[in-house]
Amino acid sequence: MSIVDRNLALSRSRSSLHLSKGLRAGLPILSFGIALLVNVLLPSRQDVELLPYRILLLAFLVFFAIRIPLGRLNAKGYQKALHDSPFYLVLGFVLAIWDVLTTKLDLLPLPFVPGLAQIVSVMVDDADTLLLSTAYSLRLLVIGFLIGSFIGIVLGVLIGWYRKWSYWMFPVLKVMGVIPATALIPIVMILVPSSFYAAVLLIVIAVCFPVAFMTSVGIANVQNTYFEAARTLGADERFLIFRVAIPGAMPSIFTGIYTATGISFATLVVSEMIGARAGLGWYINWAKGWSDYAKVYASIIIMAVTFSIVMAIVFRVRDRVLRWQKGLVK
Question: How far, in Å, CA of 202 to CA of 188, rounded?
């Protein structure tokens, strides 16, 4: 085979590879397009406003159509589009099947399993209340999470560094850490009559113990050679704590924060169902009382999206702080 033939074969293989990748990246367009056609072409047996759901599907189609050419300009973005493609392909078919079983054929029982069109319509009609509830939940979560994380880190450093603190507090940490914060609701409501501050206290408790435990473990596991080297260079105790112990324990601290984030979400929802006047948990409880399960599903979806964004922010901060680990830890 001549050099020209080899180059021609190589270029053909590359072009076929790019074509296959392009088809794979465009698979979500197929599934979401089918979901849109199913909603438009099949007659509906349920009396539901379909326009908001169709606009949502169309927005997804535009997003996937724009993502492919833009992704080619960025290798990392294009690889992410290829990686996410199978998931969105299946998601589009799931939406189509759910739409057929509910809105189109009315096979699943109402009001317990509403159609997606009904859920999206509720999001549009009740947007003001949902946005206000999301803002209340985020305010409560941020306040409780920040206070709990701060107390947990301070307590964990004291337990991990000082033996007396470890002797007296570590058993308490092990005992109280396994008790769900929601189990303390009756006691907290007696101590703090205000529903808002009681919810904040519950989130603080839920966050504090896992963060304190992992911080103390991280401080205790820092290698002694680091401290010996610092002492040789004349470091005092303050330098050892803030420049050696805490940075060395950062991976464990973020593990505790990650664990506490999930626990704080559950605590937030439960605490808002008891005496709160706003919030996503309150909204779910209120909608359940009226058997309006479309609103329940709508608030759950908004809650999942909101909390996913919060988790993404936590991971971004962790990656920023622990960027020195890149290439060392898989």
Answer: 7
How far is Cα 118 from Cα 116, in angstroms, rounded to an integer?
A: 5
CB-based contact 104:36 (threshold 8 Å): no
Pick from 95, 134, 183: nearest CA to 306: 134
* CA 175 to chain CA centroid, nearest Å: 28
Q: What is the pLDDT of residue 326?
A: 63
User: Which pLDDT tens digit goes with each residue over 38-58?
Assistant: 999 999 888 888 999 999 999
Note the Cα 49 to chain centre separation in Å. 30
From the list 170, 174, 155, the residue with the least C-alpha distance to 253 is 155
Per-residue pLDDT at 12 exceeds 60: no
Over its C-alpha atoms, the chain yields an Rg (Å, rounded) of 26
Residue 188 Cα distances to 47, 89, 204, 277, 293, angstroms = 45, 47, 12, 18, 30
Token duo for residue 190: 């007696």
The tokens for 145 are 């999470």
Distances 111 to 83, 108, 288, 290, 298 between C-alpha atoms, Å? 36, 9, 11, 11, 13
Residues with Cβ within 8 Å of residue 74, at least 6 apart in sequence:
none
For 34, which DSSP code?
H
